[in-house]
Design brief:
alpha/beta; ten-stranded mixed sheet; six-stranded parallel sheet; 12 helices; 16 strands; 24% strand; globular
Amino acid sequence: MAENVQPLRVLVVGCGNMGTSHAVAYHTLEGFDICGIVSTGSSKQVLNDKLGGGYTLYSNYEEALAATRPDAVCISTYPDTHESYAIKALESGCHVFIEKPLADSVAGAERVAAAAQKAGKKLVVGYILRHHPSWERFVEIAHQLGKPLVMRMNLNQQSSGSKWGVHRNLLQSLSPIVDCGVHYIDVMCQMTRSKPVQVSAIGARLSNDIPADNYNYGQLQIRFEDGSVGWYEAGWGPMISETAFFVKDVIGPQGCVSIVAKESGSTGNSDNIEAHTKTESLRLHHAVLNEKGEFVKEDTWINMQDEPDHQELCNREQRYFLKAVRENIDLTDHVQDAVNSLRIAFACDESVRTGKIVTL
């Protein structure tokens, strides 16, 4: 049991928005020690200063891995490095926390999952909404609405300046419906508990600043075996509309439940990372009518008291990572869910590129 009280020595790789938040969690939570910070540019110095300085900085991931010999690696780099970085960490005997998506291809995600299994190490994927009490409640209420479900979700981001810079970098390797869509596809799968059978999607390239074969607006549709259907929409860039950029709505035979984020869903917040996970309140509508055809019950407003901010959600993710390592939690389903949501997202990507419906 002695080793369980030793802090987990973590190498932080990638110092952007998510990498910084995870590093702050490791810096402040008991049970972790940061043994090094890695980035190719100056962001590692900015992060080190934010944490009060004193951490060893590296520009090369492989050198950092060899020099620090960490217990765990946190990977928050751009998606095209996820697969190689995760596999190197796992083969070096490290546990891995990795931001979504798990890889930039389905085959790559399967290789990472296989490497974790072979190494006998924990692999936790950053599905932040799974740690949010309001989203957990949202899923729970959806289960009470009957079947089939109609799930309507979007997160459009009108981005400019440095935030458009981040989106342009992401668009070098992934589309918005793959990068963001995996979260909401995962939520839909939790809500239906049914097998997705078919996807279709559309997309548009609205900027010459992105690769010729990619698109910065996309909308996907999923059909499930139980008759449920869902759509998700995501657009990034300075041209994106802020009208109805935040829709989170689920309809079933018994009524509907919606996330109503009055502040976070207001104008000017579409590219605000802090606002993306805010729920504030859930509105539950009851479909039951009386003999006169009138609603029997008024809508129920559920105001969420436990409303963690973005940093606290990252803290909760890292507490879960620590618990998974210390208590040897079986993460088979967790990893498989991450691979499956990515498989569905890439099938949607294929539909955009081919103009055809894709059967799963």
